[in-house]
Amino acid sequence: MDVGMVGLGRMGGNMSERLRRGGHRVVSYDRDPDARKAAADAGCEVVDALEHLADALPAPRVVWVMVPSGDPTEATVGALGESLEPGDVVVDGGNSNYNDTMRRGAALQHRGVRMLDAGVSGGVWGLTEGYCLMVGGEPDAVAQVEPVFRTLAPSPEKGYARVGPLGAGHFVKMVHNGIEYGVMQAYAEGFELMKAKQSLGLDLPQIAELWRHGSVIRSWLLDLTAAALSEDEDLAEVVPWVDDSGEGRWAVEESMQLATPIPVISLALQARFRSRSEDQFGFKLLAAMRNQFGGHAVRRRA
Fold this sequence. Notes:
Layout: E1 2-6, H1 10-21, E2 25-29, H2 33-41, E3 45-46, H3 52-56, E4 62-65, H4 71-83, E5 89-92, H5 98-109, E6 114-121, H6 126-129, E7 132-136, H7 139-152, E8 160-164, H8 168-196, H9 204-211, H10 220-231, H11 247-258, H12 263-275, H13 281-294
Parallel strand pairs: 1-2, 1-4, 2-3, 4-5, 5-6, 7-8
Antiparallel strand pairs: 6-7
């Protein structure tokens, strides 16, 4: 299947490569000329302008957008709406707010272009392990893109699902990331408590590795925690500053509108705010975990 990919950052580049390995033809574009050159040097098909993407793909076209949420996605989807044709499909694989996704989809629909939203989880490991894909949109549009979803997923049978109409994909991903906040916070607090019990001389890398096998709290996040601690048990160079990329805030806002309490997620978000003014080991571990699963930047001491 032919696919257009907009955005050649780490995530978009890895997804393009997984699709190529799966037998799909991928035509890519990025606004950064250095990113385009790097992709071309690696043997990728690259166009030098967004409007040229439609000319390089057969109809009906599938264009996957993998750019930062907010204004970059807004501008990209708007520009695609001007160049694509009725029957084409735009997939927003970024972490957009589901309300924005529904609005953008309605605008594209007036031009006969359909939109899908795909919440994507897998981070920098998705190239080899596959991505968990939470897809929203009309069933026939989802079916049109299904060969792509099945290639990106961990297997053709697992890790991909249509979860509802347009907007549902990004809503479910928002909740997914809110849960992630809470789980990460629990690990960080537990390891900080063990580190504080200095009289026992606990070996944190050993314990993290121990819990990975047979424990009821084993998980991929624990695997990554163990990896981070094995590299530097004290995380001495990591600044305890934990960013939030938006989904946690949106989840808390939704809980207020729906009068549905989510105290763990809410407190985990507040803890990230607190990290920016306190120097604690748990916050270092949170920052290290984000770096392990998503390649998110970590502030390091000079």
